[in-house]
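Question (not urgent): is this output format expected?
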Amino acid sequence: MSTAEAVLETAPERSRTGFDFLSSERQQKFDLLLHLLANLPRPLLVSGPEGIGKSTFLRLLQQATQDGWRICRLQGGEDLSFEGVQRQLAECLGLANAGELDRALAQREAGGELVILAIDDGGDLLPGVLDAVCRLAVHHPALRVVVTLRPDDLHVKTVTDAWAIEEGQVIELPPLDLPRTRDYVLALGARAGQGTVDEALVREIYHRSHGIPARIREQTQAHIGKPPLRWHQALAKPVYIALALLIAVAAALTYWQQRSGGAKTQADASAAVAVEPVAKPPPVAAEPQLVAGATEPQVSELAPQPPAPPPSPEEAVTEPVAESPALDAAPAAEPVAETAAAEAQPLTPAEILVSLGVHTSDWLLQQPGQYFTLQIAAFDKLEELAGFVREHSALQPLAYYRKQRRGRAWYPLLYGVFPTLEAARQAQTKLPPGLRKPWLRRLRSVQKEIRALQSP
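Got this back:
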């Protein structure tokens, strides 16, 4: 059985997404969720970035067949008050009104049954609502609470609903690694009738999605139905022919320009040679005649003329002055060659990022820890990070830092510094379409990761 077939067998078709993928690590997280619900009377906080699969966990929880469990799933939002939670919970249990909740929960506790209250997008609840719901569960041991939160929401709730976060048990959903991403892409491709998937495409999807299942699905579906992944092989011949024609045309143009330029240069040189004797002063040619005549008997006739000797030293001085710039110009070519050689050296990825205006960890450590930022990407190679920044150079300010992830270097890329959560979410809506699902983080958590790597 192929890997894709095995994945498909372990992931039955779902009505909402059409396909839910659980790796072995994520299956262990789901089993842990079931175990804690059965044995731990504390709020369970399922945390992870947008698209990691938190809602999938709640859907699978609804489908889990556990004897004596009644699962009530609610959608969180700013319009959901504590009274609204009580009302919807009563409706789920078939009660006439919320006033009957105490009696119904007491009866289920006596019968050894559990009521699971699962709230999706708990970070959107108004301040204090999560606290009130968790305190209700304390008074009724038969009521268990599961809430999904994004990491940034978890940080915010530590201030607005501190008791619930302090008492809660966090279950963090990890992103898929490269092998699991490959399995997921293969499974999605198999469902679409595409038997093979190019390894280069898998790696590209992995780096663009950062292992987030929802993004992996979007990236994969974007390629389904397009030409085969090795389309360049079919187009190779016409492309090569076109390139050869372009090279031939460029060579012909270059040759024609050189010929026309050479003819013009020769014409200019001929004109210069023809003009040069006319512009040359006559004393230079006259001086040899005076010197030659000095050995003849006519010297007595020339001796009484005093103006004749002075021009000779002036011309002797003039000739070295004319030659000295040419002599000095020769060694000046060496610095030019050295400068050209220095400019030809390629920049390192870190230097490229600096030239693009990307800030480093030192800059991040100087920002207020209570502010927010948007993590829009992360890479395991600086070269790929630099290439990504080139594609999105309009985004400013950008910053990156280095951290350890599973024993390897990892480079998160952050966009902006925002004083409030509302400002960060407003900036999120203005990002390019492919980047509108960033990880909204507090700078305090980023600075903690930076200092953890710097500490011995």
